[in-house]
Amino acid sequence: MPPDVTAIVVNHRSATEALDCLRSLAEAFRHEGLSGEVVLVDCGSGSAETSRLSGAGADVFLALPENRGYSGGLNAGLARATASRLLLCNADVVFRPDSLRPLLEAADEPGIGAAAPLAYWDADDRIRLPPGYPSGFWSDLAQLRAGNRDSGRFAAFARETLSLWERGGTARHLAGAVLAVHRRVLDRVGRFDERFPFEYEETEWEDRVRDAGLSLRFVPRSRVRHLWGASAAASTEAEARRAASRHLYWGRRYGRIGRSILARAARRPRPARFPAMEEPRLTARPGAWVALSPNPSVLPFAGAPLDAGFELPPEIAARLPRGRLYVRLFLAADGQPIETSVWEND
């Protein structure tokens, strides 16, 4: 008899996080009374990591000799999965208690193509990571040309994001760190395109899901912690793979001319001028939220309510790559920005 769910965990040079992920899955299966199967896929991390992971307790351990990317790791895992309900996830995810059933129940619905949980960035479950950020030619161009005059676009996105965080519902895009999918959806729209070496793989797959008339569901009752910002994702190799995926996606979605316009804009970004802050620390301001983003547009953003004072947790700051972090206060009622500052993470 097949298990209730197969979890496919894809690792690349993050064995410590992968071990924590597997422990959290085992506890979630036990706590929620689910029979779960874990397929752990390592994408070319080297002998030291594979040695650590081989005894991690996964039902199936696949050590790929090369880095096939997240898409290739998922496809390799899918080939070995035995359940109809599938949980696709990064290795740097920790599942909270009672996180699985709401997600799997959403994915079971006939009209749903994929479901994603609410992901927290910090250990105290205060800073929420964005549900997703939909691509589009004009929105992608606006991102690349972001300056100081983007309050309307920010406010609209902030209202949509707060609504999904609080109430859930249909989303235009889901972040790919954790996706619950029924096998019938993959049979209908296909697996992940391995020509995307890093990022955009879930964006392109979700395009196919929506083209098939299926919806994407955000489920805030399901909660995980995503340790976003790990060093492997900020490496020179990762940036080159990210650029290759972006080039491919822009060409497919917008054609040669559209890709050329976006590439030109990427080479000539408009600087955003905001006052500097010494530390990412804010006093309480009821009715307001703080948005955190490495993008000058402050889109997409991680966010936390300012019902109490806010300080970026040290474990988060330690994981961030060097560069600028944009910090924006905005009103919860309408998403309108109040003030924006920039913190230099040296």
What report would you give on this structure?
The chain is of the alpha/beta class and 346 residues long. The protein has ten helices and 15 strands. Among the domains are: 5-134 and 172-230, Spore Coat Polysaccharide Biosynthesis Protein SpsA, Chain A, CATH 3.90.550.10; 235-267, no CATH class. Helix content is 36%, strand content 26%. The strands form four sheets. The chain has a five-stranded mixed β-sheet with strand order 3-2-1-4-8, sandwiched between helices. Strands 5, 6, 7 and 9 form a four-stranded mixed β-sheet that branches. A four-stranded antiparallel β-sheet has the order 12-11-14-15. It is globular, with a radius of gyration of 20 Å. It starts with a strand and ends with a strand. The relative contact order is 0.14.
Count of DSSP H/I helices: 10
Shape label = globular
Strand order across the largest sheet = 3-2-1-4-8
- The average pLDDT value, as a whole number, equals 93
Total number of strands:
15
